[in-house]
Amino acid sequence: MGKSDVATAGAADFHDLAPALAVTGLSKSFPGVKALDDVSLSVRPGEVLALLGENGAGKSTLIKVLAGIHKADSGQIEIDGVPQDFTNPADALDAGIKVVFQEIALIPEFSVAENMFLEDHLAGKANLVNWREIHRRAQEIFDRAGFALNTRAKVKDLSVSEQQLVEISRAMARDARIVIMDEPTSSLTPAEVTHLFGVINRLRKLGIAIVYVSHKLEEIFEIADTCVVLRDGRWVSTKPTSEHTPASLVKDMVGREITSLFPHSDRTVGREIVQVEDLSSKRLDDISFHVRAGEVVGFFGLMGAGRTEVAKAIVGFDPITKGRIRIDGEDLKPHSTVRSKALGIGLLSEDRKTEGLMLDGSVTRNMTLAALDQFTRNGLMDHRAETKQAEGFVDRFAIKLARLGQPIRNLSGGNQQKVLLSRWLMFGLKAVVLDEPTRGIDVGAKAEIFALIDELAAQGLAVILMTSEMPELLGLSDRIYVLSEGRMTGEFTRENATQEEILDAAIR
């Protein structure tokens, strides 16, 4: 079937087509680790193939081999049945593979059209850039794909989702046959996710094969035709998405049954620990709420709604212009992180790598940082006591590591979060604020973090959960507050909360 035939075939017809991309027996090793071990998969024109697995499963390595960044040790890559031998990213682009990485690689000061033709500026007379032709070609691609973009707009003025469209348009400008999307919705609002899925469906109708990488299972069941699961660098399964349930997909990914992704133990809700009245700041307007001991209270809002601002304000990190914050009956005055720590409230930041962790520090030191006074005698550190305490939390939370002295940057995202939780529990908190605690974490680690959150509440902590993930919000929260543009626009109990009502409150 030729390219024009593919373009007229519906998404349901891709099973009859030969693979656009076929990978056979791919292996790749780095010093001390075999990242890929005899991996095979194929994706057809018009098919959306979900590539799944925990962190460390081999997904990133496979993507980089397909992008020409790494060269495989063995195995074969074929595009439209033709064997390929990529020595650099330009080879992969020329062969028809385009990767839209999580970190978008565009030049902010250049226009949309300039970014689309970075690798291949169209020459006119006297070998000068033919700007008119560049904008004409860009508009032609937008018309074909149904993208509402201005070819002359600067990339810096576009939203994240619009920048993704520019990346996809670059792929179409190079006649890409295969587009690989690596965590494309990590920074998108629900409305932008819906728009992206519409774009993906248009690409399918144009006969473009899509490899879609995501930790978000609800997205997989909405957009993917086929699921390929990797574990520890090896192929585990290839099945139509329709043959999977969330439980079966998780089992393939983690290698074990997870009976309940969102545990909710019986627990006693006690006195009010966090009381916030008329809180205002540069970004917040008269926010009031309360959280009781043994309760998980979720906060939801679209991007820019003020979740992170609330999180940082109530632990004394961000300044406020008015309002009252009390922790277990005591005022947060002076408004500082030193005072909030003394009162017993801590924050797991959304950006753990820059605001939570000392990446080159050891696991032990990152874990004990808030509680160093416990291990200090006459100005000297009791390293034996520090190590013993750290070992206890490693065992308790099943933190996977080579040794306590290794740099924490070498741990997976899920294990880094467990270390941060251990830090605050070691210190001894009454309340903890968790800002996007599962961002960038695979589904197996998510299940473990969810269980830990439930355990914290069961131990009597007041837990404040800031999340943009609707399943996480509904599955973990006893009560839910909704923010929109720095204002409180809704409050729901676990029993009466629905996705539709929460989203409605989020756009008020």
From TrEMBL:
For molecular function, the Gene Ontology terms on record are: ATP binding; ATP hydrolysis activity
Task: Give the subcellular location.
Answer: Cell membrane
Q: Which SUPFAM superfamilies match?
A: P-loop containing nucleoside triphosphate hydrolases
How is this protein positioned relative to the membrane? Peripheral membrane protein
Give the matching InterPro entries: AAA+_ATPase, ABC_carbohydrate_import_ATPase, ABC_transporter-like_ATP-bd, ABC_transporter-like_CS, P-loop_NTPase
Return the Pfam families for the record.
Answer: ABC_tran
Query: EC number(s) on record?
Result: 3.6.3.17
Q: Which residues form the ABC transporter domain?
A: 21-257, 268-507
Ordered alphabetically, the record's keywords are: ATP-binding, Cell membrane, Hydrolase, Membrane, Nucleotide-binding, Repeat, Sugar transport, Translocase, Transport
Q: What is this protein called?
A: Ribose import ATP-binding protein RbsA
Organism (species): Flavimaricola marinus
